[in-house]
């Protein structure tokens, strides 16, 4: 199949991106050398979320493995705006694909400063707004409130021509309502899902396992939930949707695209294989076209192997 | 990348063996019991010779995820020995079964497929890089932690560095790898149940050794459970002996992608052990007792 | 450990119940004979949700297997109030444990009629209110709205002295808010989590796999999400919490009890082993006490095997 | 239990072999290739002799959940033959690998553990119960669907009922079990690629047979893919020949707990195939073409 896609004016060679915070191109280059840049697996690179000030992140343990997935409570460690612009941006600019910078701030003023400073850099092709954060003014999680989300976009939209992608949180009853608000506020695209609130217990002490007490669940375990949220959101908005959540194969990616996603992102699967996204892209290229519903809804495509008569 | 930068987080060219990108399928060519542990070997057709202290992320091709959906992510393993063979490099791993992942890997049958990513991380430094006039090495291993010291010992010996090896184990079931991995040359043992060598802790042997003069010109290389590493770290700090520790932390990726393997830095903030470690300078970290760590 | 528990005055021999709709005691007796009654695995039996009128349920396919879980879109097939009282109740009364009847209706009047008719039967020990349904008056999903939930309870509470358990939906941003509303409305206990909205794609036609298009996810895949919601709810209310979601072992059950649940329920695990709940109860009985946090938060309980020094 | 009741949903005492409660661990004692399929056997120490048409829910003790977290629930298998042996009943299953569950079961090694629940469901009825004057049986099997007909044929033979067997397969790869399961006695074959017997559909053979007089006094027992079953169902309906179909539907539990195995009833509503089937009367169901069904 033809794989080129466009997200808010940004042309991408294929629909496979990375989920923010699940691939560090700079660290990967230290581990794998320039070879990883040569066969860079993503059509655009999404940075880990940066914040105005540096953050050390949460105390360990930060990860817990679950059935077909994992919980993380990383806590957005990052060098802060300045450190990112000075030390990371020049290295990320060496990548062969467009750079999408993920940003988060608590409070509109802070968010403005961040978006302003990042958007003006020519190395940056687009911004992803991580709104899974409390708004210091209202105390509410922006991404859980359509009104908060629309209001934030109305403030940020005028600051740049570059595509603004809103990363939606799945921890809501109706993600489509938030997506519609983001579109109304001027977002060029939405991406989902972020991780789902989760926790784990130390089997020995029976106290919270994670240093931060709680975290977010990702991986194949959440795929069916992500697919439903992507379907609901894609049906509700007209801007492109970047779908993610447990995608591990071309078949998974196809399911998200069929559900209405314009592109998909690979997150936790990168941890199992640094080139998982490359495999997924190749599986997409080689995927057969969908078989039209033969046996009337019925045993459609569901009868493998033996079918005498 | 997180919090204050460590000297090691300089991008690229840091004298580590870089890994082929992505995971690759290798064939398991051997798996034998060694005391209470097992040693399994895989033939790596394309990877470079690993440096001592580097590790690999491993996952069985089949049966991964068989216990309540776990293991899901690959598991980190220090390479215990690496031997060039005509059709690749034989990688030896020493494994102790403590959960679903190690259980599955300990049960690998020759001919099975093993997903391998690596070599990863920063290995041990040569003694002379750890201090002026430092030439010799004291290796301190505890339990399964003796694995990376085996290949380190061989590589140091090849450089002609004088090496003394101290190995500690809890009891019979938690002893293994000595004959296979330290056959070449004598190693002093300590066991808590006294079934072999000194009855007590390997750190008892170390303290005696650190009293001697030789200590001045030697660096300490340690790998083992957090409690042992922390003891070694403080002993060396007090006596101003350079020491490197091969640490552990829960790892999901092994190449700096997940930020899960945080180890607190002496200067505040955290390092990612997989990319800035797993070998750390004793002075670099705040403690070796990291929550969730320990094999 | 001592296993007896009390839920709103209802004494249970142990804390292991079944999730509504995941065990049919009548069908199980047909398959396994009276032996299944003799060693009945649950301390109370929760019926499949019944509705005022009979329902045939959703068109097939109704289930889809996912990584470490499954999606179901069963559609609450049931004989309706009359059929249940006439044909099922006498057989359920033969069980050696208290009977909890799960009920759902759209609209307060219907709900009243249902609760009235069920509560007056002496065979019934308690009722579970399945509020994952739209309120025909408001069109809103009752269980997604604290106000709707409290209002419903205020109507139903006066109808019976018997314990009313509110089955919470997990498809909300803040399940604790709904739980608090249920408690305020007079609920004796809350149970959670119900299944999470999910969907699946036919790999061949790339159209929705399920006959109903969408369904709910259950099984180990959702355990970490359920544990977090149970923790949050138990911290917010003073009434007992019945925790469920992916519980497959005594260790899982202990995690839920440690998170604040008074009892737990086994759902999808019943499908893998009709006596899974019996094994879980035995594992609970034999569980060692929690080890106090040794290495100061640190490597607490997390250093297995070799620990020389 | 859902929608209108079927005659069969009467609680208890319905002449089915009831299963020991819960799942039990059995030992795999054999696994051999049979054409394009495999036949594996487990030794069931405690279960009763199953009736023809009954099934078991099976899950490998190890390696369940190894492909993207699947299989998770057990898999339903018709018993192909059951033989009393001194230390239990040997259960034979014919398997075709079509996904992660069947792939894992097809790969079972003797000595491995197999979780078994069953026998479950309602089996085939004796001919005389299907109509006055009905004495003989015509068995129609397609592909992997020949499995339950093997034990049915044996049990009918023991009752002295005249039996004719028609088996259809798609091609060589999708042919198996004939020699092992139908050795005793001749069976007529139809294959779509014509590599054996009549080139065409097994239903071609059936229609010829239904023209003959013998048909009047015979009942048809069929198992195979949905399309074949539906064809058989309508053919028998037209000619007013009694027929029972062993159907399939996606099953999570196999004992009536999940309501997942819905099959539409002629009278409207659905039956749970696991508890009111898997053998159904052709007249009882609305269609054999059920979405999601088909092995
Ligand atoms: C750099 C490095 C090198 C290593 N080298 C070796 C080696 O050479 N040989 C060797 O045997 N081991 C080695 N280890 C340790 C090894 O990686 C772990 O023992 C292994 O990952 C355990 O996996 P498991 O599935 O067997 O056990 P797990 O179930 O993952 O349990 C391992 C420990 O993690 C904790 N834990 C329990 N449940 C979970 C969960 N759900 N999620 C997260 N943590 C959990 C517990 O403390 C448990 O003791 C190394 C580790 C690192 C980081
Ligand atoms: C009563 C009964 C008796 C049976 N007897 C036999 C027998 O004797 N021998 C035999 O070989 N088979 C038999 N089957 C069929 C067998 O149970 C199925 O082939 C098996 O469950 C498939 O599991 P799988 O994991 O190999 O394949 P799956 O991946 O489960 O795929 C099997 C079919 O289900 C659909 N499917 C694909 N993905 C999913 C998913 N995620 N969730 C749900 N469905 C999916 C597809 O149509 C696929 O063809 C029987 C089935 C029933 C109900
Ligand atoms: C370890 C880890 C760190 C993450 N960090 C971020 C982050 O910094 N910003 C963000 O928007 N999403 C972050 N995510 C969420 C992912 O981008 C993605 O939305 C989520 O993991 C679901 O996709 P997956 O199941 O493929 O991982 C993180 C996820 C993981 C597992
Ligand atoms: C097949 C199936 C049917 C269910 N039917 C009902 C129901 O009728 N009423 C209800 O309140 N919950 C129902 N549930 C939800 C379960 O009771 C339980 O809340 C959920 O499955 C989570 O627990 P688990 O992961 O252990 O299955 C059903 C779940 C499944 C899998
Ligand atoms: S293990 Fe993922 S960053 Fe270190
Ligand atoms: S398979 Fe669960 S009810 Fe039939």
Question: What's a quick, concise take on this entry?
Answer:
The complex is a heterotetramer, with 2 copies of chain A (309 residues) and 2 copies of chain B (295 residues). By secondary structure, chain A is of the alpha/beta class.
What does this entry look like structurally?
The complex is a heterotetramer, with two copies of chain A (309 residues) and two copies of chain B (295 residues). With 309 residues, chain A is of the alpha/beta class. Chain A is built from ten helices and 14 strands. In chain A, strands 3-14-13-10-9-8-7-4 form an eight-stranded parallel sheet. A four-stranded antiparallel sheet of chain A has the order 5-6-12-11, with no helix packed on it. In chain A, strand 5 and strand 6 (69-72) form a beta hairpin. In chain A, helix 5 (146-156) runs parallel beside helix 6, helix 6 crosses helix 7 and helix 8 (250-258) packs across helix 10. Mean pLDDT of chain A is 93; it is low at 295-309. Chain B has six helices and 16 strands. The longest helix of chain B is centred in the last third of the chain and has 13 residues, at 226-238. Chain B starts with 23 loop residues before the first strand and ends in a 14-residue tail after the last strand. In chain B, strand 9 (163-169), helix 3 (178-181) and strand 10 (188-191) form a beta-alpha-beta unit. Chain B has helices at residues 100-106, 147-158, 178-181, 202-211, 226-238, 273-276, and strands at 24-34, 37-44, 55-60, 75-78, 81-85, 88-95, 113-120, 136-142, 163-169, 188-191, 198-199, 218-223, 243-246, 262-264, 270-272, 279-281. Chain B is of the alpha/beta class. At the C-D interface, helix 1, strand 5, strand 6, helix 3 and helix 9 of C face strand 7 and strand 14 of D. The structure holds flavin-adenine dinucleotide (2 copies), flavin mononucleotide (2 copies) and FE2/S2 (inorganic) cluster (FES) (2 copies). The site of one flavin-adenine dinucleotide has 24 residues of chain B, from strand 4, strand 6 and helix 1.
